[in-house]
């Protein structure tokens, strides 16, 4: 009985470790839309008003999002997320286009409301 219990415990431990590693690999490679929008909140004053330059926390957010967009799927999902959220948040499209340049951050996909997220 004790051997059977140890075998089951060991199997459950391996299964648990496998699940943790699987979930961890998913979360490293992607960022949820909500998390991306929350991360970008320091940019709202620049993106929605006449503020001439983004703040350092905003530029750090741009860098963080750019680093999280490591796959084509992640970039496409972020593109769709920002495409849907920008009008509701009052984002000025021309300022969104300039944001990476103003922050000195290279982004894999241009920030452009006219961009087709599927390409």
TrEMBL record:
The keyword Transport applies. Residues 33-117 form the Bifunctional inhibitor/plant lipid transfer protein/seed storage helical domain. Pfam families: Tryp_alpha_amyl (PF00234). Keywords: Lipid-binding, Transport. Belongs to the plant LTP family. Plant non-specific lipid-transfer proteins transfer phospholipids as well as galactolipids across membranes. May play a role in wax or cutin deposition in the cell walls of expanding epidermal cells and certain secretory tissues. This is Non-specific lipid-transfer protein.
């Amino acid at each position: 009985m004790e051997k059977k219990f140890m075998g089951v415990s060991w199997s459950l431990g391996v299964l648990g470790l496998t699940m943790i590693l699987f979930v961890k690999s998913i979360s490293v490679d992607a960022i949820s839309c909500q998390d991306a929008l929350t991360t970008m909140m320091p940019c709202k004053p620049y993106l929605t008003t006449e503020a001439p330059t983004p703040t350092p926390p905003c530029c750090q957010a741009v860098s963080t999002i750019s680093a999280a967009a490591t796959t084509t799927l992640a970039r496409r999902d972020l593109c769709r997320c920002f495409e849907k959220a920008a009008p509701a948040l009052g984002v000025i499209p021309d300022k969104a286009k300039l944001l990476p340049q103003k922050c000195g951050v290279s982004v894999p996909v241009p920030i452009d409301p006219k961009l087709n997220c599927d390409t």
